[in-house]
Design brief:
Order of helices and strands: HHEEHEHHHHEHHHHHEEEHHHHH
Radius of gyration: 24 Å
Number of helices: 17
Low-confidence stretches: 2-7, 13-20, 229-234
Mean pLDDT: 76
Shape: elongated
């Protein structure tokens, strides 16, 4: 697969052993002493031979017509579904795409190269390091909201014993077996999404949403996941909780529909034939949550400008006041805890890096 070194592309180098079925779809061995031009031409011919002109694809796949004859096959998935992974593999093997685009951003790209066991452990655990990283990346309010949303994902992971994003990892592996296939990250950066989502809510709405996320405990089965193939389970869970907050739905779902559509259109540009000065229509496979499919289809033929949905408004006066009050409250609680626990415990508490960072930010330095 062709490697790209831009912010939205990622090169694939799968190293897992291939079964006999996988070997059929892997890159072929090239004859020795073949020139670079001939090798590229041969690989392109192999790709064209494998590409099915009228592929029999899963029901979860939509076909979108791009400009200049380009085609986008949009695979709607459930993020915790085994059958969704099979749909992705089947689609990529059938259409031999020039680009595979997935619903991930650079802040979540690590899940592509981690093994299932590590991912399962990571998804279940929400530790202090994750809290610190989320707050550092997104700010206090947005960071805490991200942790609460991670709790939703961790709850589903715990219930199913299955790590999220399996369909993206399958897409990454399969793209590596297709000659001259680029791999794109197509989702809006998660810090932008969270900051815009928090800015859209009032203080009361933030508290109400946080309460709902904190006490999520409904049991979930694998059968429930497969029933949700028409609407991804994670997105359905989120939709149920944010349904009463139209502005939150707009920032988390509708705006990302626009962004994903824009990125898919950018991916569906004509591609240059290897070693030739000729361009041909592109074939693209997009892998997104089922909940985004209707929005992408709705926006497909609409001129799009993503500048507005990429901007983050500065904190309002009310949020600045609330932040100051919260810091003062935490400082007061910290002081009272030190007083009640005694000077020894207080010194230990004040030695914790997180507490020291907080104190440095809150207490002004001397002249």
């Amino acid at each position: 697969m062709e490697e790209q070194q831009s912010g939205e592309d990622l090169s694939c180098c799968p190293t897992s052993p291939a079964s006999s079925q996988e070997e059929i779809h892997s890159l072929p061995a090239l004859p020795p002493n073949l020139s670079d031009v001939d090798a590229m031409q041969l690989l392109w011919e192999v790709k064209m031979q494998r590409r099915q002109q009228c592929p029999d694809l899963p029901e979860t796949v939509s076909r979108l017509q791009g400009e200049d004859g380009s085609v986008v096959y949009l695979v709607g998935t459930a993020h915790f579904s085994e059958s969704s992974k099979q749909d992705v593999v089947r689609t990529i093997q059938a259409v031999q795409p020039d680009v595979v685009l997935v619903e991930l951003c650079q802040y979540r790209v690590s899940m592509l190269k981690m093994d299932e066991k590590t991912l399962l452990k990571e998804a279940k655990e929400i530790n202090l390091e994750k809290v610190q990283q989320a707050i550092k990346q997104n700010g206090v309010m947005s960071g805490l909201m991200q942790i609460l949303l991670l709790k939703v994902s961790a709850h589903i992971t715990e219930q199913l014993g299955m790590a999220p994003g399996g369909e993206f990892r399958e897409a990454f592996r399969e793209a590596g077996k297709v000659p001259f296939c680029k791999f794109h990250l197509g989702d809006r950066p998660i810090p932008v999404t969270f900051k815009r989502a928090i800015a859209a809510l009032s203080l009361w709405q933030k508290m109400k949403l946080a309460w709902g996320l904190c006490f999520l405990s409904d049991p979930i089965s694998k059968e429930d996941v497969e029933k949700c193939k028409q609407k991804d389970l994670l997105e359905q869970t989120m939709s149920e909780m944010i349904g009463e907050f139209p502005d939150l739905h707009r920032t988390i779902v509708a705006e990302r529909d626009i962004y994903l559509t824009y990125m898919l259109k950018q991916a569906a540009q004509r591609v240059e034939l290897p070693a030739l000065q000729e361009k041909v229509p592109a074939v693209v496979v997009g892998v997104v949550g089922m909940g985004h499919v209707p929005g992408i289809e709705r926006n497909w033929d609409t001129p799009l400008n993503i500048q507005e949905i990429m901007s983050v408004a500065p904190p309002s006066l009310s949020s600045t006041v609330v932040k100051t009050v919260l810091k003062g409250s935490v400082l007061g609680i910290l002081g009272y805890a030190c007083y009640r626990a005694g000077s020894g415990v207080g010194r230990v508490l004040l030695s914790v890096p997180v507490v020291q960072t907080f104190m440095r930010r809150f207490v002004p330095s001397g002249p």
